[in-house]
Design a protein that fits this description.
Number of domains: 2
CATH architecture of the largest domain: Orthogonal Bundle
Shape: flat
Distance between the termini: 47 Å
Largest sheet: 2 strands, antiparallel
Order of helices and strands: HHHHHEEHHHHHHHHHHHHHHHH
Helix content: 55-70%
Strand content: under 5%
Structural class: mainly alpha
CATH class of the largest domain: Mainly Alpha
Number of strands: 2
């Protein structure tokens, strides 16, 4: 009997609810229509009342907002905003127009509420049947106070998870689903709600990313931006990673003096807010900044001209205004900002490597490079492998470094990129921002957002699967 109960408890909820409805009494069968029927039948009056209140709120929302907008979900509205003369009031009045944005938003919210209400109904049907069996067997039916007490004792995990789950649904899931839906519409500056309507266009926006012509430049721009995004993420991740390890090894070397002073100096770089550092560095490396002044006075600018790294017509080094120089400087500046943080992580890991390993290696005649390659790096990778994956994903979405260093400084000379509102130094995430903030091209920004998610998800799944593959975690030991 216990085995049957255990199996039933682990059945799929719709299947369990269907069985409960078929074998339940009148109160169970009435629960889908009157949510509190099963609770009232078991004399759980407060739970029954709360269930009726929830049902009333859901039905009122669906009647007021859900059904009117869901009925227009297929077209996203057909009546444009217009000013119509009213002969009764002798005034021009705004007509009863459709707002495509609100139709899409309320339709999505309504669908989420319908799904949540369906799950809640299935759960209440199952609860009602459980209460029925408890009554028949003469068991004890909990009162409302006992249910509340249980939520702070044996079911306290549900109490703790409820609010975060609602927060994720409201502030993450719904906006994410809305963005995905926008990618299948023509919502842009020419179809801006509420003055204009937008509608569904299917996969047309995704197809534009694979077209390259004089009129369609998104395919060309996407290829260039994606390539630079992956190159940037790789360089930014591994330069900081190996630079942090090297810096930590140098500071912790037995011959290094005043170790605390060196650590403090580098930690100060972390203490200063990143946007302050980036804006300050941007001014340093401006065409008329202090670095260019120093390079010109020291003859460095003329030398770079002579070797062809700076155009002969320039009187400065285009640190942040030339595509090649800007990409190099962005990686270099990110290295300067990111290395101190990696230095602290590496220091913590290195201090936990057993000294017996190094002593054994020294006895066996291993040199410094062999010790580093066979002991230090394998240990570092076994501990910081997950960090490398998350750092790579974070750099794909590293908005601050790119935007703060180049905004209002770098202007692209590539007409195809400019036609797509992109720049040579843009990452996918900064391109997405420009599409929304500068050109109000929400449809293509949504497409880019989906592709950013796909790139990050695919890399994360592959990397974590490789990192935590059976047997790899204990390989070092």
């Amino acid at each position: 009997m216990k085995t049957d109960t255990h199996d039933e408890a682990h059945e799929f909820l719709p299947v369990r609810a269907a069985k409960s409805w078929l074998h339940g009494d009148w109160s169970v069968k009435l629960t889908p229509l009157f949510w509190g029927a099963g609770y009232l039948r078991a004399k759980q009056l407060i739970k029954g009342f709360l269930a009726f209140v929830c049902e009333a709120v859901v039905l009122l929302f669906l009647y007021q907002y859900g059904l009117p907008n869901l009925s227009k979900f297929g077209t996203l509205g057909t009546i444009k905003r217009a000013t119509v003369y009213n002969p009764q009031t002798l005034k021009n009045e705004v007509n009863q127009y459709d707002n495509s944005f609100l139709i899409l938003l309320f339709s999505l919210v309504s669908l989420v509420i319908i799904v949540a209400a369906t799950i809640l109904i299935l759960r209440m049907v199952d609860d009602a049947h459980t209460l029925q069996k408890t009554r028949k067997s003469g068991g004890h039916v909990n009162t409302f106070v006992e249910d509340i007490r249980a939520l702070f004792n044996e079911r306290f995990h549900l109490t703790l998870l409820t609010l975060p789950t609602l927060g994720i649904i409201v502030f993450t899931v719904v906006p994410l689903l809305f963005m995905i839906l926008v990618a299948f519409t023509n919502y842009d500056q020419s179809h801006m709600a509420p003055t204009e309507l937008f509608t569904w266009v299917g996969l047309d926006n995704f197809a534009r990313l694979f077209k390259d012509s004089l009129s369609e430049t998104f395919g060309y721009s996407f290829g260039k931006v994606l390539g630079w995004t992956l190159l940037w993420a790789t360089c930014a991740t591994f330069t900081c990673y190996f630079g942090g390890i090297a810096l930590s090894l140098m500071i912790n070397h037995k011959r290094t003096r005043v170790k605390k002073l060196w650590r403090t100096l580098f930690v100060i770089c972390i203490a200063v807010p990143q946007f302050v550092s980036l804006l300050l560095v941007r001014n340093f490396f401006a065409d008329t900044g202090i670095v260019n002044t120093f390079c010109a006075n020291a003859g460095i600018t003329e030398f770079l001209k002579s070797v062809g790294l700076v155009g002969a017509y320039l009187d400065h080094i285009p640190f942040l205004t030339d595509a090649g120089w800007a990409k190099f400087m962005i990686i270099l500046i990110n290295f300067w900002i990111g290395v101190p943080y990696l230095m602290l992580i590496a220091t913590g890991v290195l201090m936990n490597i057993p000294t017996e390993y190094y002593e054994s290696a020294k006895i066996d005649g291993a040199n410094a490079f062999q010790t580093f390659g066979r002991i230090t790096m394998p240990f570092m990778l076994s501990v910081t492998g997950p960090y490398l994956i998350t750092a790579f994903i974070a750099n794909i979405n590293n908005f601050n470094v790119i935007y703060l260093l180049t905004q209002d400084v770098y202007y692209t000379m590539d007409t195809k990129l400019a036609a797509s509102n992109a720049k040579d130094i843009d990452l996918l995430v900064t391109w997405l921002y420009r599409l929304t903030n500068d050109s109000y091209n929400y449809k293509m920004a949504s497409v880019i957002g989906i592709l950013v998610f796909v790139v990050c998800a695919v890399f994360t799944l592959i990397a974590f699967n490789y990192t935590f593959r059976k047997g790899r975690e204990g390989k070092f030991q």
